[in-house]
Amino acid sequence: MTSLWADAQVYYPLEVEPYTPEKYFPKGKNDPAFRTKLKMAWQLVQRAVEQGWPFRAVVADNFYGEDRGLKQKLQKLGVPYVMALGPSHAWYHPEDVAGTLQDVAREAGWQGAKQPGQWVRVTRRFRDGSMQDWWALEIVAGPYGPDKMQRAVVATTDPETLPDLTTWYLVTNLPAPIEQRVLPLPFPPASLEEVIRLYGLRKSGGTELQTGQTCSGLVEVTSQE
C-alpha cells in the first residue's frame, strides 16, 4: 500500500505500508494484527491529515470508491475525495427507470458532438503539450446531483460506446460550482474539468497539467500546492 503525492511536476510515494494477506496470520482475518487494504488506506489518509499535507482530494480506484464506510469516514474527517465507481454501480430505483451509472450515461441524449445532449466537452492538457478532448456528464439520479452531498461524474472519450479503457465513473464530495447556495460549502467547489483532472493525475502518473488551482494526489492523495 502506497500513499502518493501527485501533481503536474511530481508523482512521489510519501509512505509505503506492506500488506500481508490473512493466510500469513495465525488467526487469519480474525487476527488482531491483520489489516485490510481499506483499513490501511484509511490510516494513510489519517496520517496525511495529521502531518498537515495540503491536499486537494484523496483519489483512489473503485475498490475504495465502492466502499461506503470509507467514504463516510472521509466525509466525517472533513477530507474531500474523488474516487472511481464501477459502471454497474446502482441505487434503489423503479424497474423502468435507469438505475446504474452506465444506464444513466446511455440515456443522456448523446447524438454526436454537435448534439451532445447533457454531455459537456472537456479538454485534458498534458505536460508534454498534448491535448485530448473528453466528454463529461454530471449525473442527476439517485443519491447523486450537483446540489447533493455526493456527486457522480462520468468522463469518456466516446459517449456513444462508453469504451471500458477510456471511460471513468467517478464519485466526489467536492461541491459543484452553483451560484446560489444557502448553506456554506465544506470544500471549495470543483468544476467537471477539475474532478476529471484530479482523477487523471492518478491515471496518468502525474503528467496531466493543472490550470488555476494546482492539485496533487494521496492513496492516492491530490494536493493544492
Q: Which helices and strands, and how do they pair?
A:
Elements: E1 2-6, E2 11-16, H1 37-50, E3 55-60, H2 62-65, H3 68-77, E4 81-84, H4 101-106, E5 120-125, E6 131-138, E7 151-156, E8 167-172, H5 192-203, E9 217-218, E10 221-223
Parallel strand pairs: 1-10, 3-4
Antiparallel strand pairs: 1-2, 3-10, 4-8, 5-6, 6-7, 7-8, 9-10
Helix pairs in contact: 1-3
Looking at this protein, list some descriptive labels.
globular, 20% helix, 5 helices, Transposase Inhibitor Protein From Tn5, Chain A, domain 1, alpha+beta, 225 residues
Structure description:
- InterPro entries: IS701-like_DDE_dom.
- This is Transposase IS701-like DDE domain-containing protein.
- This protein is α+β, with helices and mostly antiparallel strands and 225 residues long.
- The protein has one domain (2-223): Transposase Inhibitor Protein From Tn5, Chain A, domain 1 (Alpha-Beta Complex), CATH 3.90.350.
- The protein contains five helices and ten strands.
- Strands 1, 2, 3, 4, 5, 6, 7, 8, 9 and 10 form a ten-stranded mixed beta sheet that branches.
- The relative contact order is 0.21.
